[in-house]
Amino acid sequence: MALHLASTVLFEAPLFSAQWILVSRFRTSVILNEVDTSGGNGSPGTLSAPGKVYISGLSAEMQPVQRLISEIAPTDIPVLLLGESGTGKEVAAMHIHNLSQYRDLSFVKVACSAGLAEPLESHFVPPVNGEVGDGAGTLFLDEIGELAPDCQRRLLHSIPDGNSAPAGRPTGCRIISCSTRDLETDVHHGKFRSELFYRLSGVSVQLPPLRRRRDDIPLLVRHFLSKYARVFHRAEMTLSEGVMQLLMEHPWPGNIRQLENVVKRIVALENEELGIVDLKASPTLSGLLHAAIAVPSRSLKAASRAASRQAERELILQTLERTHWNRKRAAEALQISYKSLLFKLKQIQGLESEEVGKAGEMQ
Questions:
Q1: Which of 180, 184, 181 lies closest to 201 in space, CA to CA?
Q2: Is the domain of 228 the same as that of 203?
Q3: pLDDT single digits (tens) 114-139
Q4: Where is the domain boundary, 190, 208, 226?
């Protein structure tokens, strides 16, 4: 397994005023043995970037995806990763990089939504006398579908047409792109250049949404519980059967990223009930909660109190999210004492339990 150290570079985009590109460079620097990188034949998780682990998963939906990734990773074929937001496209790109002949070279991420600030030609310079420059490695074009037409033209002219090298030796650069958009439809409607689409989509990999790989949720939850126990210096938690059932049934519109945020909140607060407050307002429980609180005879004063409690709850949770679940910093931001914040968190937990209890009684 390769551990990657990261540095971040900001490039100002002169063609797009007040916009910036964030380019993250990852270079393989330390070789360890704890995690398997054999293409999914061993451990279902491999370290892909600082703090990010590629979870190939055990679900039927992910098995063909993993086989395809294992087959194309050692090649020079451009890869287009498609999927909803939060399905793990960047982590999958890093996994492909780790399995490729470029794993000892740079992984360069370009945020296409900001335009193209730097010339990309330098990344496609092939090795000279066996020496590979800093620009070589894997170029990851994040959200390629967001590129403006002029940037699409520039990128198309930057990509070599038919890059080749002797077997087993890296060429100048391997391209991996990703998008949440339906690029074929964009090509049909003239929003994306067909030549660029065909140049980038040597192989297209569709990453399934989390709702179609529910068998992987327990594996992902265990990983995130362990990860954030280390981050927050907490004892590793085990979730109750009821909470795990809720996580398994939730539709997860934000996919893996949303699941990670929920588990992160649970660990940070050391309280699973508080951590799933947002999920309890979701469609999976919204009918129960509405049945509990939608009483026709409720007075205006009671309705005002309920709205105030809801607004306070949302503000507290948003502030905790913004302060990375540091409760002391959140109390300062809310301009209340630390003890008051802890009291309000207990109130939120009590209200949630009470609402769900009432809803259950009405069934």
A1: 184
A2: no
A3: 766 555 655 555 544 555 455 568 99
A4: 208
